[in-house]
Design goal:
Blueprint: H1 2-29, H2 35-58, H3 64-76, H4 86-116, H5 123-141, H6 144-166, H7 175-183, H8 187-191, H9 197-212, H10 214-221, H11 233-341, H12 346-352, E1 356-361, E2 369-376, E3 379-387, H13 391-411, H14 417-432, E4 443-452, E5 457-465, E6 468-473, E7 476-481, E8 499-504, E9 508-512, H15 515-518, H16 529-539, H17 544-559, E10 568-574
Antiparallel strand pairs: 1-10, 2-3, 3-4, 4-5, 5-8, 6-7, 6-9, 9-10
Helix pairs in contact: 1-2, 2-3, 2-4, 4-5, 4-6, 4-11, 5-6, 6-7, 6-9, 6-10, 7-11, 13-14
Length: 575
């Protein structure tokens, strides 16, 4: 509202100042001038100027020039869209700029001249300005070719029509207005280029036709006016200046666009050079990487050759190892047959002790554990032996231990477990040539001597070196522990003890090494003596082979996928 009031104030002030001057000027020239037309147009111009000034004051830290430049840029870029090619965007901007130039440099001045001197001809420049505005609007809404076509010929037509109005029929056209018409022939070359030949040719042909029709249009538009005023010096000079200004403006637009094109070309060239430089740098980096890759490939090939050589060597070694492995397996299997040959066979065991079982599971192919059985008169002697170590070392010691047992019992007729243990202890030390302070081999074992007393009673004599005998008599568990001294670790000898027990018919004895009880599971938990004795109490009344199956199954459930850690040797006998 404040802007509107100030604009109205500007209108009345302009009207008060300009109207007396116009009337005085008209009286001096003796022309009948429609002062109202002049007042209206000057009021419009004054109001527009005042409004622009008021708007510019509201722009923060912006001058009137900045506001006008911003307004010009917005109008000049009307219709320019990002998806258009660059040359088309530039042509739209040129078209809008030419229209603005012609409106300000030619349209408004000729409207002013018409208002003051030739009011009946006011419609000609007014239509030209209107066509220019329509051209900008057409560009804005997307009809860019039609809008630019309007811009190419409408100023020229307006100039020709204006000259026809101002010239008297039958006379030559006014030179100044003809010069103005000629200046407008440059417009098509501003808004079109050789890529748009059909529009350029069409607009140029239209201009030629209008030029040739200039003399014929003159009588049609002739009106009763004193056109001699147009031929006066100052007015003719004004029209000439407008023409020159239009030409210069057109040339400046072309020069400006050319400068912009050169600037863009320089920018593109600079970007191209930078891009080329970047490409060269990238090529250098790629070349370096290629060199590195080439070196890596050479190194890789060298490594492959070394690897191939190593693989060949390993293959030969693997072949040799396979041969050695086969030989070793054959040797171990042969040793296994030898070791099993010293064990009592099943027929002899069934003959001597009908109700019995043996759970014998070596950790490796050969074992450090073995069992021994012999019968002398009425006495049955059975032993479960655990030699130091397992595998091949244990098996070698077991052969020596079996030999010493044979010497003690078969050759020397010893049947007392304590004497047998002392003999084995001394004999094993002698055969293994033990020395004080060195690591020595030995055995843990338990020996049972069974001697029938009556049909229902049997005398049990037991001697043990770190091994325990488990007896279940009348449903009760009895443990007979051996001495806590292994065989073969004392050159001076050790006096082993013996234990006697009278068994009833049906009682069961279990002679074992520590392999079964010490077997661990995945959580490193031992089977344990408590669980072992509890299991014996549960199964002792069962048939002996059935007991063996249960004991083996319980061990497997406890062990699962865990590797067997020691040789297992368990003997069960029902008296």
């Amino acid at each position: 509202m404040n802007y509107l009031l100030k604009s109205l104030d500007g209108l009345w002030a302009t009207n008060a100042v300009v109207t007396p001057w116009l009337r005085s000027f008209a009286a001096q020239e003796n022309y009948r001038i429609e002062v109202e037309y002049s007042i209206i147009w000057l009021v419009i111009i004054s109001a527009s100027s005042l409004t622009i000034q008021q708007i510019s004051k509201q722009e923060e830290r912006l001058s009137l020039r900045d506001t006008l430049v911003s307004l010009y840029n917005k109008i000049a870029s009307a219709g320019v869209r990002p998806e258009y090619p660059e040359y088309l965007q530039r042509k739209i901007t040129i078209s809008n700029s030419v229209i603005l130039l012609l409106i300000t440099a030619a349209g408004i001045p000729f409207i002013t001249i018409s208002v003051i001197f030739y009011p009946p001809a006011l419609w000609v420049p007014s239509v030209s300005v209107t066509f220019g505005i329509i051209s900008i609007l057409l560009n804005r809404i997307g009809f860019i070719n039609i809008g630019r076509f309007f811009a190419s010929f409408s100023p020229f037509i307006a100039a020709v029509l204006y000259n026809a109005y101002m010239s008297t029929a039958g006379e030559m056209l006014i030179a100044s207005t003809s010069l103005l018409s000629l200046s407008f022939t440059l417009v098509p070359f501003l808004v079109f280029d050789l890529r748009e030949k059909k529009y350029l040719i069409l607009s140029f042909l239209l201009l030629l036709i209008i030029i040739m029709m200039g003399d014929y249009l003159n009588p049609l538009f002739e009106i009763e006016l004193d056109t001699s005023l147009m031929k006066k010096g100052y007015l003719s000079l004004s029209v000439t200046l407008v023409s020159i200004l239009s030409c210069v403006g057109s040339i400046l637009v072309l020069a400006s666009q050319n400068l912009n094109s050169e600037t863009r070309a320089e920018q593109l060239l600079h970007r191209s050079e930078e891009h080329s430089k970047e490409l060269q740098e990238q090529q250098q980096v790629i070349q370096q990487k290629n060199d590195q890759l080439t070196n890596s490939q050479k190194e890789l090939k060298q490594s492959m050759r070394v690897l191939q050589s190593t693989q060949d060597t390993l293959a030969k070694q693997n072949k040799a190892l396979e041969i050695e492995y086969v030989k070793t397996q054959e040797g171990l299997n042969y040793a296994k047959r030898i070791q099993f040959s010293i064990l009592p066979d099943d027929d002899y065991l069934a003959q001597v002790i009908p109700e019995s079982f043996i759970l014998y599971k070596p950790k490796d192919i050969v074992s450090g554990d073995f069992y021994w059985l012999s019968q002398h008169a009425k006495k049955t002697i059975i032993a479960a032996v655990d030699c130091t170590g397992h595998g091949v070392p244990g098996a070698l010691v077991s052969l020596i231990g079996n030999n010493v047992l044979n010497e003690a019992i078969i050759e020397n007729k010893l049947t007392d477990p304590a004497k047998i243990l002392r003999y084995i202890d001394k004999g094993l030390s002698q055969k293994l040539k033990h020395e004080e302070g060195t690591i020595r081999d030995g055995m843990d074992l338990g020996i049972c001597v069974l001697e029938p007393v009556t049909k229902s009673k049997t005398k049990l004599i037991y001697g043990g070196a770190k091994n325990t005998l488990y007896v279940i008599s009348k449903g009760k568990l009895i443990t007979l522990k051996g001495d806590r001294k292994s065989i073969g670790f004392s050159r001076k000898g050790f006096n082993y003890s013996k234990k006697e027990l009278l068994l009833q018919k049906g009682d069961v004895i279990y002679l074992t090494t520590d392999g079964y009880i010490d077997q661990a599971n995945a959580d490193r938990e031992r089977f344990g003596s408590i669980r072992f004795t509890k299991l014996l109490e549960e199964i002792h009344i069962l048939e002996m082979q059935q007991q063996r199956h249960i004991l083996e199954q319980a061990l497997q459930e406890h062990q699962q996928e865990t590797e067997q850690r020691d040789d297992i040797n368990l003997i069960g006998i029902r008296v």
